[in-house]
Amino acid sequence: xxxxxxxxxxxxxxxxxxxxxxxxxxxxxxxxxxxxxxxxxxxxxxxxxxxxxxxxxxxxxxxxxxxxxxxxxxxxxxxxxxxxxxxxxxxxxxxxxxxxxxxxxxxxxxxxxxxxxxxxxxxxxxxxxxxxxxxxxxxxxxxxxxxxxxxxxxxxxxxxxxxxxxxxxxxxxxxxxxxxxxxxxxxxxxxxxxxxxxxxxxxxxxxxxxxxxxxxxxxxxxxxxxxxxxxxxxxxxxxxxxxxxxxxxxxxxxxxxxxxxxx
Length: 263
Fold this sequence. Notes:
Layout lengths: L2 H13 L38 E2 L8 E9 L7 H10 L1 H4 L4 E4 L10 E8 L8 E12 L3 E7 L4 E12 L2 E12 L2 H9 L2 H20 L6 E8 L14 H7 L1 H13 L1
Antiparallel strand pairs: 1-6, 2-8, 2-9, 3-4, 4-5, 5-6, 6-7, 7-8
């Protein structure tokens, strides 16, 4: 969660009457101990999400980064709520082929789970590796939504997608506060192109928005290392690593499909 969102929640919690609760309570997901995926998602592989807990920046292993991607829609006559409504409705088709999002039928709503089927790039002669994971929609309103990662996801932390107005121009923004979930992911982000792939995913998404609204994809990226230290006490997070578990269970899934076709 960004510092701005944290401050907003604190302000509203102290100013609203105790009997009423925060004014934006309906925009937040209800607390959950474990995630549960409800309903079928056509074409999605549902792994490494059901029964998993949530992980924030404090629970991750690697260096903590805040990354911000911004796209001004200069020249487009569109308001932040209009942009966000379109963004939410078209989220799956905005993603690149190697990182597919599968929201529920309800769409981008607080408490819903978005399944993610991605492919990590081939490195050092090894074939591309699949990863099946997801995120919880932690917060959503007319101009933004935030997601939180589960155990085993490549990152531990938050991503906030927002549309805001600056000097009469609507700006699309993606901001993350996260660290690699375990030592394997940290190695991948640092030395195997994982960080570059992540940046390309969000550039692609914002590029698709720019194309739709007919503006130049003048995307600005800001990266700040908030904490360069790794948390060795969290190295055991590798037990839930979604890439390893997706890869190791692939033969069983292939066998099951083959037996299903033969029968």
